[in-house]
Structures are given as C-alpha cells and as structure tokens.
Design brief:
α1 (about 15-25) packs parallel to α2 (about 45-55). About 35% of the residues lie in helices and about 25% in strands. The chain has helices spanning about 15-25, 45-55, 95-120, 145-155, 170-175, 205-215; strands at about 35, 55-60, 60-65, 70-80, 85, 130-140, 160-165, 180-185. It is built from six helices and eight strands. β4 (about 70-80) and β5 (about 85) form a beta hairpin. The radius of gyration is 17 Å and the shape is globular. The protein has two domains: about 15-60 and about 125-215, 3-Layer(aba) Sandwich (Rossmann fold), CATH 3.40.50.2020; about 65-120, 2-Layer Sandwich (Ybab, Chain: A), CATH 3.30.1310. The longest helix has 22 residues, at about 95-120.
C-alpha cells in the first residue's frame, strides 16, 4: 500500500524519529538508563533508544482524567502508582474532591490491569538513582507526561529526561520546569496533532507493545 506524504511530515515513521532522538541522547550511553515509554505510540521509539543506549526498556502507565460530563476534556492525569497531575485550568471548574478521588481510584485500577497485561512476567522497573528517559512519539498538552514525571520523581531518580519527536513550544516550556532535560526534535507552533508530522503513523497494537517489552526482560 502506498503511503502518501503529509504536508507537515517531518519523519518517515516512529523508528526514524527514534534514531534521531538516539543521536541527541548519546551522552546517556553507558549509564544503563531506564527508558520509560508511554504506550502505545512511544514504545517503538523507546525500543530503539533503549537498544542504542544499552539501557532497559519499560512502560510508564498514565491515564488522562476527563471533566465531569465531558470525559474527552482532560483536566489532569494519573499514573499507575497514583501520582496525580492537575491541569492549571481545572481549579476554575469547581470539581468536587469526591470526583477526583473516584476518578483516581478508577483509573489506577485500570492501569493495574494494563500493567498485568503488558508485563505479566515482572513488576515495573524501579527508577531510584537511575537516569530515566521518558519517551513518546509526540506531546500535545503534556498532561500525561507531567503525571509520568511525578511518578518517576517519587522514586528519587538521578536525572529525568523527557524525549519526543514533536511538541508545541508552550508544552516544551512547561515540561522544562518539571524535568531535568527536555529533548524534542521538532518544536512546532503549528502543532495540531502528532500524526500529521509522520508519513506513516500506523496504530501501535497491544500485541506489538508486549512483544517489544518481552525482548527486554
């Protein structure tokens, strides 16, 4: 099947973007970094980066939290260990503490099931005293990545790096306040969706994620 080039495409596919990221992250080679990919789209990039840096690959599991009555409108995100990121604008929405508590409980339970599905053969890798690289194919608002950073920071890592192929400038500036380093290949003010910057942005399946993780036991 022929893939037609997209007007904004900068990368052939996720693997090509990952190779470019690997070049930017070369200083981490030999430090046994922990590469935490955000599924599902971040995992193919994470595999390339972990292999190239001779590190370990795992996933960091995060779910968005939607507004009451409008689940598509993200007001925050929570990690599998319950680390919560609340979007700044959420304070203006008069959301009850009961709603937050219930959503966190519900999403953490869903993430526990996802962890068992993705890595049934082992628990999540620990981040304590390690260089940690959080990888995704692209970052829009940054809510899920902020929750991932909180998850990692709670384990006292040596350093936290956020790496992605593309993101808007305002998101990059927000992430610079939370991570030790932010590596984004393309910072685009015309950002609308991650997929528009890839010629091939095929969906990554759960089966592919499991396969990529199994090879890094």
């Amino acid at each position: 099947m022929r893939i037609h080039a997209r007007p904004k495409a900068l990368f052939k596919d996720r693997k090509e973007a990952a190779r470019f990221l690997l070049e930017k992250l070369s200083e981490c080679r030999g430090l046994n970094p922990l590469v935490l990919a955000i599924p599902r789209g971040g995992v193919p990039l994470g595999r390339v980066v972990a292999d190239g840096l001779k590190g370990e690959l795992d996933v960091v599991l995060v779910h968005k939290i939607g507004a009451p009555g409008n689940p598509e409108y993200a007001i925050g995100a929570v990690s599998e260990r319950g680390s919560l990121y609340t979007a700044p604008y959420a304070s203006h929405l008069a959301i009850s503490s009961n709603y937050w508590d219930e959503e966190v409980r519900r999403q953490v339970h869903a993430l526990e099931l996802k962890r068992k599905h993705y890595t049934p053969y082992r628990p999540a890798h620990g981040a304590a005293n390690r260089v940690v690289i959080i990888v995704d194919d692209g970052i829009a608002t940054g809510s899920t990545v902020q929750a991932a950073i909180k998850e990692v920071d709670a384990q006292r890592p040596a350093k936290v790096i956020v790496a992605a192929a593309v993101a808007p400038p305002e998101t990059v500036e927000l992430l610079k306040q939370e991570a030790d380093e932010v590596v984004v290949l393309a910072i685009r003010p015309d950002f609308n969706a991650v997929g528009e910057f890839f010629e091939d942005f095929s969906q990554v399946t759960d089966e592919e994620v499991i396969h990529l993780l199994k090879s890094h036991v």
